[in-house]
Write a structure and sequence with these properties.
The complex is a heterodimer of chains A (about 60) and B (about 500). Helix content of chain A is about 65%, strand content about 0%. Chain A is built from three helices and no strands. Chain A has helices spanning about 5-30, 35-40, 55-60. The N and C termini of chain A lie far apart (about 80 Å). Chain B has helices at about 10-40, 50-80, 90-110, 125-150, 155-175, 195-230, 235-250, 265-275, 280-290, 305-325, 330-335, 340-365, 375-410, 420-425, 430-455, 460; strands spanning about 180-185, 185-190. The radius of gyration of chain B is 23 Å and the shape is globular. The chains are: A mainly alpha (about 60), B mainly alpha (about 500).
Chain lengths: ~60, ~500
């Protein structure tokens, strides 16, 4: 392996490690806390609204 | 003025139906292939019925037809719900359904006729590949177009996974299938030798990464909190896992080519990245399982939740096993044996099929205008058929794989081999029978699911279900997360 190639791969590894740490810092930063708490609950919203139409309910009750 | 719009669930219902049908077709072909390994006379000396011809039909049928239909259907469902908007380009969305079904039918009828590129998991010839690329780009246009019209500024993490799945699979498919057609039914890849092998396994492994993992994690990150009725255990952890998973997976493909003509250092890179990969894999599995904290009681009566929890257990187990099998010394025992078959089915019947089935059971009643699935008892029966079939399948293949590995490397004092290949084949024959029986149980469960879905879809078939309105709140400047202005 040439010196040039070794320095380049070393630099890329450092950049990747710093990027990864920045992603952690971004995800854990306090300014996202409220948004992320709301997002964690988002899938549960789908269960709130009724799923059966009035037409079906009427048909099933025999009316 | 209040905007009124409805979720576009028609295409979701079509994909739901397709997933149920292709699940039975793809797995039945697999069961027949397993029967041929046990009773070779079952090919009746008919060329299109031989194991080598129907095996790609099984893999294409379960991965792309069953898995692909389930992924596209759930993706269209999730991107609407997590963005509080209806689908962009609904006609194109329906075209992606018909286009994908055409792809599956073309691929599965041409491959048994011997019309194949002979590239594993990318067998269909060039004319099918072009159709796949067109459908896939259309799928991406609908997905990203829907994201662009979302009313919630932050993009929910499931969509990050679905987005990575769409972009990466498109890239992998196009690069791996660059070929020169010489006739309507024959083409040759532009790559040759070890480069062809590396491109193939860069594609093959990342098909596992982005089709069978990222796509299904998108499903998991939406349907697990929804079914557990608990917030996602750690939203920020899911983001870190996303970036770690997609950046590490791309470099692990060479572990499929250990001890081959591939340069040794490339094999070592694949091994190292495969070991690192365990961390984001277990991160997502833990995030899903911990989401059930506080609602474990649901497992008693909720078969969909049972499927989801067991899928996460098998996701953790299969990814641990995969990382271990990528270690060169372990690979020297496991490679070319049925251990590989056990591993891939632990991941596919265990993780992929179970998260899909759990998600379909969670989504189907809502998409079909019902309060619940038609039969809870049938869901329970399906769960036990599936789990028993899975354990029989992977248990027998683990046993067969280790038996083969140990017998193949055994040598006498003079250096000659202790056992012939035929000896090892005779030794594992009972395992092939157990594997086939396990497969029969899994397919039986899929038939039960199709029956249950058919009855749940009674109102949809009669076209009397009412579309579900998109919740569009009045603009609130303090809303968290901030809304994007409503699109009329």
């Amino acid at each position: 392996m040439s010196d040039w190639w070794g320095h380049l791969t070393g630099a890329i590894i450092v950049v990747m490690m710093v990027t990864f740490i920045c992603i952690w810092a971004w995800a854990w930063s306090g300014r996202h806390r409220r948004t992320f708490s709301r997002m964690a609950e988002l899938p549960m919203d789908d269960m709130a609204a009724p799923t059966v139409s009035t037409k079906i309910a009427t048909r099933k009750s025999g009316a | 003025m209040q905007v009124i719009e409805y979720y576009d669930d028609k295409v979701v219902r079509l994909f739901l139906l397709a997933a149920a049908v292709w699940g039975i077709v793809g797995m039945s072909v697999g069961v027949y292939a397993a029967a041929e390994l046990m009773w070779p006379a079952l090919n009746f000396d008919i060329p299109w019925l031989t194991f080598s011809r129907i095996r790609p039909d099984h893999t294409f049928g379960v991965i792309f037809a069953f898995g692909g239909s389930a992924l596209m259907g759930t993706c269209y469902y999730v991107v609407q719900r997590t963005g509080h908007t209806r689908l962009a380009l609904p006609r194109l969305a329906e075209l992606t359904f018909w286009g994908w079904q055409l792809v599956c039918v073309l691929a599965m009828t041409t491959m048994p006729l011997g019309i194949t590129q002979s590239k594993e998991y990318a067998e269909p010839e060039w004319f099918v590949d072009i159709l796949i690329a067109v459908v896939w780009v259309s799928f991406g246009a609908v997905f990203f177009g829907t994201l662009a019209r979302r009313r919630i500024r932050h993009i929910y993490v499931a969509n990050w996974y679905y987005g990575a799945f769409i972009i990466a699979v498109g890239l992998l498919h196009i690069v791996n299938n660059i070929a020169l057609p010489v006739s309507l039914t024959k083409s040759y890849p532009v790559y040759s030798g070890v480069v062809d092998a590396m491109v193939e396994w860069w594609y093959g492994h990342n098909a596992v990464a982005f089709f069978l993992t990222a796509g299904f994690l998108g499903m998991m990150y939406y349907f697990v909190p929804r079914q557990a009725q608990q917030p996602l255990w750690s939203y920020r952890f899911s983001i870190v896992n996303f970036w770690a998973l997609i950046s590490v997976y791309m470099w692990a493909g060479s572990h499929h080519l250990m001890y081959t003509a591939l340069p040794d250092w490339v094999q070592s890179v694949g091994m190292a990245f495969s070991l690192v990969l365990l961390m984001p894999s277990w991160g997502s599995a833990a995030n899903g399982l911990f989401t059930f904290n506080g609602s474990w009681a649901r497992l008693k009566n909720d078969a969909a939740a049972k499927f989801m929890v067991m899928s996460l257990v098998f996701y953790a187990a299969a990814t641990f096993e995969g990382s271990m099998m990528a270690i060169k010394t372990v690979n020297s025992l496991s490679h070319y044996t049925d251990w590989t078959i056990a591993h891939v089915h632990s991941g596919s019947i265990g993780w992929v099929a179970m998260i899909t089935i759990g998600s379909l059971y969670a989504m189907a009643p809502r998409a079909l205008g019902q309060p619940a699935m038609y039969s809870q008892k049938a869901m329970e029966v399906h769960f036990w058929l599936h789990i028993m079939g899975l354990l029989m399948y992977v248990g027998s293949m683990w046993t067969a794989g280790v038996t083969e590995g140990v017998m193949w490397r055994a040598t006498n004092a003079d250096g000659s081999l202790t056992y012939s290949f035929l000896d090892s084949l005779i030794a594992i024959r009972p395992m092939y029978l157990i594997r086939w029986m396990g497969g029969v149980l899994v397919v039986s469960g899929m038939v039960v699911m199709a029956w249950n879905l058919w009855h749940t879809a009674a109102d949809a078939r009669a076209r009397i279900i009412k579309p579900i309105p998109v919740p569009i709140p009045e603009p609130d400047p303090d809303q968290i997360p901030s809304p994007i202005p409503a699109v009329s």
